[in-house]
Protein 1
Amino acid sequence: MIETARVRLRPWRESDRAPLAAMHSDEEVMADYGGPLTRVESDAKFYRYAAAFETHGFSRFALERLDGVFLGYVGVMPIWLTHPVAPGVEVGWRLARSAWGAGYASEGARAALRDGFRRHGWDEVLSYTASDNIRSQAVMARLGLARDQGRDFIANDDTAAAWTGLVWVARPDMDWS
């Protein structure tokens, strides 16, 4: 578990499946993802994140306020080997709409990066988003991530239209306090 002044990042519990699915069913929350997820799709993410923690010791963690209110998730995941910026690790977040605008994504991501650089010794952690995802770009800027246009990519799979990813980089020598 990782705690900050306001939030806790922790491994997933079975009781998180319902609030995670509720968040994934929100059209506005999932707009950058191409739309809401079904319960089956949300559960698949839940199990993938839980398995990543068991395998690697890091993952997208459940993010909650210190009083236990579910906020969403934040953390670092291995980048899929077939991804255009692979190999590596990527920090990301997704918050329930009720948690937007309070700084929870920045606070949680900063804590996840600090923990990851300390415990895993990574040389860098990437973060990427679409050009129209202004909220995530604002989090990346608040974190002080360095924009790396040379790594921008176009991803195209069978399930969605081509997607342009803008890439930012976190390094261990940055201030993660």
Protein 2
Amino acid sequence: MALSTEIEWTDATWNPVTGCTKITRGCDFCYAERFAERFRGVPNHPFESGFDLRLRPERLLQPLTWKQPRRIFVNSMSDLFHREVPSPFIHSVFDTMEKANWHTYQVLTKRSSLLVRYLRDRYGERDAPRHIWLGVSVEDAKNVIRLRHLQSANASTKFVSFEPLLGSVGQLDLTGIDWAIVGGESGPRARPMSEQWAIEIRDQCRAAKVAFFFKQWGGVRPKSGGRLLRGREWNQFPKTRESAHLQAAE
């Protein structure tokens, strides 16, 4: 677990799984892969095996040792719903999140259909607890289907990360969505984000009363272009009991 992070919309990261494989063009220049592969072959380094998928059972209970409430990004270096992550291991991750319920967890996936199936199997007709936020990544109009999957999921708090935003997503149905994040790609091969793509999402969020967070313009480095959209920062979070508690503690 990283006690701090430069990701603006979270406080900490927890990686009981690391590594992943590419499934759409939003994965092409993955920041996590770029970081992990720098250490491939380094003896005894956590990323000695680079970005190969690895379960980290020794990390499963880490949030229980962290007593101050935090927003925790779950698997910033992987995807919990990767097909090669066994269901019993995902159960263990959710068991910890349910036990350490003073934290708020942000679980983000591109495998949206597997997310829906898992939540249905675990919770039946109930929704996942409100302190476990479930989200999907959408990089362009082609992948808006992930948002539709999320809308059908048994989740109390739902969010969408439009990062890296690689094209217009068009007209959105944001029914049931609590939060949207927008960000441009970063890294040496970053693809530029049009201001209009970000504005069309912001305006739809405002109309639908969905919290909107503008993370970055991106560029060679994440902070290259700054965080201002039309002259201001957008740092909204979902209005939940857990987020109110976290803001009071900050």
Protein 3
Amino acid sequence: MKEIFLNTTKLEFLNLDLNFVAEMPYFDGGIPAGFPSPANDFQDLTISFDKEVFGSSPSTIFCARVTGSSMEGAGISDNDIIAVDRLLVPQDGDIAVCQIYDEFTLKRLKVEKDCVWLMPENDSFKPIQITDNESFQVWGIVINTLKYHRKRK
């Protein structure tokens, strides 16, 4: 694990071990969230999480742990792990890891003619307007989120 500190903001990079590919049982028919379905409706398939999360170009992807609640409306919570692709060209509506001056932030991009807005997905936070005068860089685009659902002790 590698940590980068810029002022008071921490970006925690997680080490990826792509030498190990684990295939797990996968039920392609879907798991009903409503009424139960007979288990024998499912085919016996496997899935590789590393291929699903990192795709065909893992060298352009990094993972980081999220701190804060500004993106909860997008389903990204404090302590989630995001997979970020540095190769993707940022587009309007993408969720991006951005650096503004010496601070990191995770926000949705809203691209307008004269500026870019960094939009939070939580009403407790205000949008951030980026103009030509700002020191601003997109580090990458979020492609996946890993979330722990069991209640932590």
